[in-house]
Amino acid sequence: MAYQAKLRVWRGDATSGELQDFEVEANEGEVVLDLIHRLQATQTPDLAVRWNCKAGKCGSCSAEVNGRPKLLCMTRMSTFDEDEVITVTPMRTFPVIRDLVTDVSYNYEKAREIPSFTPPEGLEPGEYRMQQVDVERSQEFRKCIECFLCQDTCHVIRDHEENKESFAGPRFLMRVAELEMHPLDDADRVEAVQSAHGLGFCNITKCCTEVCPEGIHITDNALIPMKERVADRRYDPIVWLGNKIFKR
Ligand code: SF4
Ligand code: F3S
Ligand code: FES
Fold first, then answer.
1. ipTM, two decimals
2. Full-prediction pTM beyond 0.90?
3. Atom of ligand 2 minimally distant from the CA of 204
4. Is residue 205 in contact with ligand 2, taking CB distance under 6 Å?
Protein backbone atom coordinates (compact mmCIF):
# COMPACT_ATOMS: atom_id res chain seq x y z
CA MET A 1 0.00 0.00 0.00
CA ALA A 2 1.30 3.42 -0.94
CA TYR A 3 2.00 5.90 1.85
CA GLN A 4 3.66 9.30 2.26
CA ALA A 5 7.20 8.78 3.56
CA LYS A 6 9.02 11.49 5.46
CA LEU A 7 12.39 12.26 3.88
CA ARG A 8 14.93 14.70 5.30
CA VAL A 9 17.53 15.36 2.60
CA TRP A 10 20.72 17.40 2.79
CA ARG A 11 20.80 20.10 0.12
CA GLY A 12 23.67 22.45 -0.55
CA ASP A 13 27.13 22.69 -2.03
CA ALA A 14 30.75 23.04 -0.91
CA THR A 15 30.06 26.41 0.73
CA SER A 16 26.87 25.75 2.73
CA GLY A 17 23.79 23.58 3.02
CA GLU A 18 20.92 22.41 5.19
CA LEU A 19 18.57 19.50 5.80
CA GLN A 20 15.20 19.93 4.08
CA ASP A 21 12.01 18.00 4.84
CA PHE A 22 9.82 16.42 2.16
CA GLU A 23 6.89 14.04 1.95
CA VAL A 24 7.29 11.56 -0.89
CA GLU A 25 5.06 8.70 -2.00
CA ALA A 26 6.44 5.26 -1.19
CA ASN A 27 5.20 2.01 -2.70
CA GLU A 28 5.66 -1.60 -1.76
CA GLY A 29 9.06 -3.02 -2.69
CA GLU A 30 10.77 0.34 -3.17
CA VAL A 31 14.24 1.39 -2.05
CA VAL A 32 15.45 4.80 -0.85
CA LEU A 33 16.81 5.61 -4.32
CA ASP A 34 13.28 5.20 -5.78
CA LEU A 35 12.05 7.91 -3.42
CA ILE A 36 14.98 10.19 -4.19
CA HIS A 37 14.14 9.82 -7.90
CA ARG A 38 10.45 10.54 -7.21
CA LEU A 39 11.47 13.59 -5.19
CA GLN A 40 13.57 14.76 -8.15
CA ALA A 41 10.73 14.11 -10.60
CA THR A 42 8.00 15.84 -8.60
CA GLN A 43 9.47 18.48 -6.25
CA THR A 44 13.20 19.17 -6.64
CA PRO A 45 14.29 18.76 -10.29
CA ASP A 46 17.75 20.11 -9.52
CA LEU A 47 18.51 17.61 -6.70
CA ALA A 48 21.95 16.07 -7.38
CA VAL A 49 22.37 12.33 -6.77
CA ARG A 50 24.85 9.93 -8.36
CA TRP A 51 23.62 6.50 -9.44
CA ASN A 52 23.95 4.14 -12.34
CA CYS A 53 22.93 0.45 -12.09
CA LYS A 54 20.21 0.48 -9.40
CA ALA A 55 21.30 -3.09 -8.69
CA GLY A 56 24.04 -2.74 -6.05
CA LYS A 57 26.81 -3.34 -8.57
CA CYS A 58 28.18 0.00 -9.81
CA GLY A 59 29.00 1.52 -6.42
CA SER A 60 27.76 4.98 -7.49
CA CYS A 61 24.82 5.67 -5.15
CA SER A 62 26.78 5.68 -1.88
CA ALA A 63 25.44 8.09 0.75
CA GLU A 64 24.39 8.01 4.41
CA VAL A 65 20.92 6.99 5.56
CA ASN A 66 20.17 7.94 9.15
CA GLY A 67 23.91 8.48 9.57
CA ARG A 68 24.95 5.05 8.32
CA PRO A 69 26.95 4.54 5.12
CA LYS A 70 24.62 2.82 2.60
CA LEU A 71 23.97 2.17 -1.06
CA LEU A 72 20.71 4.08 -1.72
CA CYS A 73 19.62 1.45 -4.25
CA MET A 74 20.00 -1.41 -1.77
CA THR A 75 18.32 0.21 1.22
CA ARG A 76 14.75 -1.03 1.34
CA MET A 77 11.99 1.30 2.52
CA SER A 78 10.47 -1.70 4.33
CA THR A 79 13.33 -1.51 6.86
CA PHE A 80 11.86 1.77 8.23
CA ASP A 81 8.59 2.48 10.03
CA GLU A 82 6.09 4.34 7.84
CA ASP A 83 6.04 7.37 10.17
CA GLU A 84 9.83 7.45 10.64
CA VAL A 85 11.83 10.41 9.33
CA ILE A 86 14.51 9.04 6.99
CA THR A 87 17.54 11.30 6.81
CA VAL A 88 19.65 11.10 3.64
CA THR A 89 22.99 12.89 3.62
CA PRO A 90 26.13 12.77 1.45
CA MET A 91 29.15 10.68 2.52
CA ARG A 92 30.82 12.66 5.28
CA THR A 93 34.43 11.73 4.59
CA PHE A 94 34.58 13.29 1.13
CA PRO A 95 34.05 16.92 0.06
CA VAL A 96 30.53 17.75 -1.09
CA ILE A 97 30.07 18.81 -4.69
CA ARG A 98 26.30 19.30 -4.50
CA ASP A 99 23.45 17.74 -2.49
CA LEU A 100 24.13 13.99 -2.24
CA VAL A 101 27.12 13.98 -4.59
CA THR A 102 30.64 13.99 -3.15
CA ASP A 103 34.08 14.31 -4.70
CA VAL A 104 35.65 10.85 -4.29
CA SER A 105 38.89 11.64 -6.13
CA TYR A 106 40.89 10.94 -2.93
CA ASN A 107 40.23 7.27 -3.68
CA TYR A 108 41.57 7.46 -7.21
CA GLU A 109 44.71 9.18 -5.96
CA LYS A 110 45.24 6.38 -3.44
CA ALA A 111 44.67 3.75 -6.15
CA ARG A 112 47.37 5.35 -8.29
CA GLU A 113 49.88 5.17 -5.43
CA ILE A 114 49.84 1.34 -5.42
CA PRO A 115 52.36 -0.26 -7.80
CA SER A 116 50.48 -2.54 -10.21
CA PHE A 117 50.66 -6.34 -10.50
CA THR A 118 54.28 -7.31 -11.16
CA PRO A 119 54.67 -10.83 -12.63
CA PRO A 120 58.10 -12.49 -12.82
CA GLU A 121 60.23 -11.20 -15.65
CA GLY A 122 59.88 -13.19 -18.85
CA LEU A 123 56.61 -14.89 -17.85
CA GLU A 124 54.12 -14.52 -20.72
CA PRO A 125 50.38 -14.07 -19.95
CA GLY A 126 49.49 -17.57 -21.27
CA GLU A 127 52.00 -19.13 -18.88
CA TYR A 128 50.39 -17.92 -15.64
CA ARG A 129 49.57 -20.86 -13.34
CA MET A 130 47.95 -20.59 -9.90
CA GLN A 131 46.59 -22.98 -7.30
CA GLN A 132 42.80 -22.81 -6.86
CA VAL A 133 43.28 -21.84 -3.21
CA ASP A 134 45.20 -18.72 -4.29
CA VAL A 135 42.54 -17.87 -6.86
CA GLU A 136 39.84 -18.08 -4.20
CA ARG A 137 41.76 -15.88 -1.79
CA SER A 138 41.97 -12.93 -4.17
CA GLN A 139 38.50 -13.63 -5.62
CA GLU A 140 36.90 -12.34 -2.43
CA PHE A 141 38.76 -9.03 -2.67
CA ARG A 142 37.89 -8.67 -6.34
CA LYS A 143 34.17 -8.55 -5.50
CA CYS A 144 34.78 -4.91 -4.53
CA ILE A 145 32.44 -2.53 -6.41
CA GLU A 146 34.41 0.58 -5.33
CA CYS A 147 31.47 2.17 -3.56
CA PHE A 148 33.94 3.63 -1.03
CA LEU A 149 31.54 3.09 1.89
CA CYS A 150 34.40 1.43 3.79
CA GLN A 151 36.55 4.49 3.14
CA ASP A 152 33.67 6.72 4.27
CA THR A 153 33.18 4.90 7.54
CA CYS A 154 36.78 4.42 8.67
CA HIS A 155 37.37 6.80 11.57
CA VAL A 156 41.04 7.27 10.63
CA ILE A 157 39.97 9.61 7.83
CA ARG A 158 36.30 10.24 8.68
CA ASP A 159 37.30 12.17 11.79
CA HIS A 160 40.82 13.22 10.77
CA GLU A 161 41.21 15.05 7.49
CA GLU A 162 44.93 15.36 8.25
CA ASN A 163 45.39 11.57 7.93
CA LYS A 164 44.24 11.44 4.33
CA GLU A 165 47.69 12.04 2.94
CA SER A 166 49.31 9.10 4.75
CA PHE A 167 46.42 6.58 4.89
CA ALA A 168 45.19 4.64 1.85
CA GLY A 169 42.03 3.41 3.61
CA PRO A 170 40.62 -0.13 3.88
CA ARG A 171 39.70 -0.48 0.19
CA PHE A 172 43.27 0.16 -0.96
CA LEU A 173 45.01 -1.63 1.89
CA MET A 174 42.91 -4.58 0.74
CA ARG A 175 44.19 -4.05 -2.81
CA VAL A 176 47.77 -4.22 -1.51
CA ALA A 177 46.89 -7.42 0.37
CA GLU A 178 45.38 -8.94 -2.78
CA LEU A 179 48.59 -8.30 -4.70
CA GLU A 180 50.83 -9.38 -1.83
CA MET A 181 48.97 -12.71 -1.58
CA HIS A 182 49.14 -13.26 -5.35
CA PRO A 183 51.66 -16.06 -5.95
CA LEU A 184 52.83 -14.52 -9.22
CA ASP A 185 53.34 -11.01 -7.90
CA ASP A 186 57.04 -10.32 -7.52
CA ALA A 187 56.85 -6.86 -5.90
CA ASP A 188 57.66 -6.63 -2.20
CA ARG A 189 54.69 -4.84 -0.66
CA VAL A 190 55.16 -5.57 3.05
CA GLU A 191 57.36 -2.57 3.84
CA ALA A 192 55.30 -0.18 1.71
CA VAL A 193 51.95 -1.19 3.20
CA GLN A 194 53.13 0.16 6.53
CA SER A 195 55.28 3.10 5.48
CA ALA A 196 53.65 4.37 2.28
CA HIS A 197 50.03 3.24 2.64
CA GLY A 198 49.57 3.73 6.40
CA LEU A 199 48.47 0.28 7.62
CA GLY A 200 49.67 1.23 11.11
CA PHE A 201 46.78 3.75 11.42
CA CYS A 202 44.26 0.89 11.31
CA ASN A 203 43.34 -0.26 14.81
CA ILE A 204 41.07 -3.06 13.59
CA THR A 205 37.73 -1.51 14.54
CA LYS A 206 36.12 -3.53 11.70
CA CYS A 207 33.66 -0.75 10.82
CA CYS A 208 34.80 -1.07 7.19
CA THR A 209 33.82 -4.75 7.15
CA GLU A 210 30.42 -3.98 8.71
CA VAL A 211 29.37 -1.55 5.97
CA CYS A 212 30.74 -3.42 2.93
CA PRO A 213 27.73 -4.21 0.69
CA GLU A 214 29.67 -7.09 -0.89
CA GLY A 215 30.24 -8.74 2.49
CA ILE A 216 34.01 -8.79 2.02
CA HIS A 217 35.89 -9.66 5.22
CA ILE A 218 38.21 -6.68 4.77
CA THR A 219 39.63 -6.69 8.28
CA ASP A 220 39.97 -10.42 8.95
CA ASN A 221 41.10 -11.53 5.49
CA ALA A 222 43.12 -8.55 4.25
CA LEU A 223 44.16 -6.09 6.96
CA ILE A 224 45.04 -8.49 9.80
CA PRO A 225 47.06 -10.85 7.54
CA MET A 226 48.99 -7.82 6.27
CA LYS A 227 49.63 -6.67 9.84
CA GLU A 228 50.94 -10.16 10.61
CA ARG A 229 53.29 -10.03 7.64
CA VAL A 230 54.59 -6.64 8.74
CA ALA A 231 55.15 -7.93 12.30
CA ASP A 232 56.91 -11.06 11.00
CA ARG A 233 59.14 -9.01 8.74
CA ARG A 234 60.07 -6.51 11.42
CA TYR A 235 60.21 -8.55 14.59
CA ASP A 236 60.65 -12.27 13.81
CA PRO A 237 64.44 -12.83 13.53
CA ILE A 238 64.09 -16.04 11.49
CA VAL A 239 61.73 -14.43 8.97
CA TRP A 240 64.01 -11.38 8.89
CA LEU A 241 67.03 -13.58 8.11
CA GLY A 242 65.08 -15.60 5.54
CA ASN A 243 64.01 -12.41 3.81
CA LYS A 244 67.59 -11.21 3.69
CA ILE A 245 68.71 -14.49 2.11
CA PHE A 246 65.76 -15.24 -0.20
CA LYS A 247 64.57 -11.66 -0.77
CA ARG A 248 60.86 -12.47 0.12
FE1 SF4 B 1 32.70 -0.86 -1.15
FE2 SF4 B 1 33.35 -3.14 0.12
FE3 SF4 B 1 34.81 -2.29 -1.95
FE4 SF4 B 1 34.90 -0.98 0.36
S5 SF4 B 1 35.61 -3.09 -0.02
S6 SF4 B 1 34.77 -0.06 -1.65
S7 SF4 B 1 32.80 -1.19 1.09
S8 SF4 B 1 32.68 -2.94 -1.99
FE1 F3S C 1 39.46 1.58 9.60
FE2 F3S C 1 38.65 -0.85 8.96
FE3 F3S C 1 40.90 -0.52 10.24
S4 F3S C 1 37.39 0.81 9.69
S5 F3S C 1 40.53 1.24 11.52
S6 F3S C 1 40.47 0.21 8.21
S7 F3S C 1 39.48 -2.16 10.50
FE1 FES D 1 24.68 1.14 -8.70
FE2 FES D 1 23.42 1.75 -6.41
S3 FES D 1 23.04 2.58 -8.36
S4 FES D 1 25.16 0.48 -6.69
1. 0.99
2. yes
3. 7
4. yes
